[in-house]
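This section describes the prediction task in plain terms. A model, or a person checking by hand, is given the sequence of a single protein chain and must write out its three-dimensional structure as a string of tokens. No templates, partner chains or ligands are provided. The sample shown here is typical of the held-out split.
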Amino acid sequence: SEYFALPGDRDVLASWLRERFDTMRTASARATFTDVEREKYRFDGIIGTSAALNAALERAARVIPHPSVTVLLNGETGTGKELVARAIHYQGPRQAAPFVDVNCAAIPDQLLESELFGHERGAFTGATNAKAGLFELAHGGTLLLDEIGHLAGPLQGKLLRVLEERVLRRVGGTRPISVDVRVIAASHVDLADAVRRGAFREDLYFRLNVVPIT
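The expected answer:
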């Protein structure tokens, strides 16, 4: 890949060899680290040895010990985002607490707010009893917001407020409720592109995109 004329290029050749050696050593160390981390943490159901997959699992392994870090999982449907989310929860400090997941695309917008934040009795027609939302049910553990790119605009603002303050109010309620939850968001939609199109709040995107795993 290079041409050297000796003996005049002896020093240049030596420098080139050192650079190539350092590059190989770094790549080897990275591969070793990834293997060690994958042995340390179980990523059940995830099979593969590609560089992209190794990089994603390495990043996931780094975030596992930190219970309050928000994670954004990006990838096509069926690429194992939920498996990575479960590994982050069940191999981490919150493993004894609940893992709660919700598909934001599968619940109508008018019901999703109640599902996430809960509601008080009489908050709307049919609310005959108070109900805790998924944030409350996941208290101490992890909440996976799958397909978050489909979240309606008004709910994006309410979610942002909960992420910033770690406090919510049920639908129809006034009492603030503190929640301690690791939030993992997952999307097959390119959220950065959605922000550019005005379909997703930029401030919420940056709040979710603390540790991106693709």
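For orientation: The chain has a mean pLDDT of 90.
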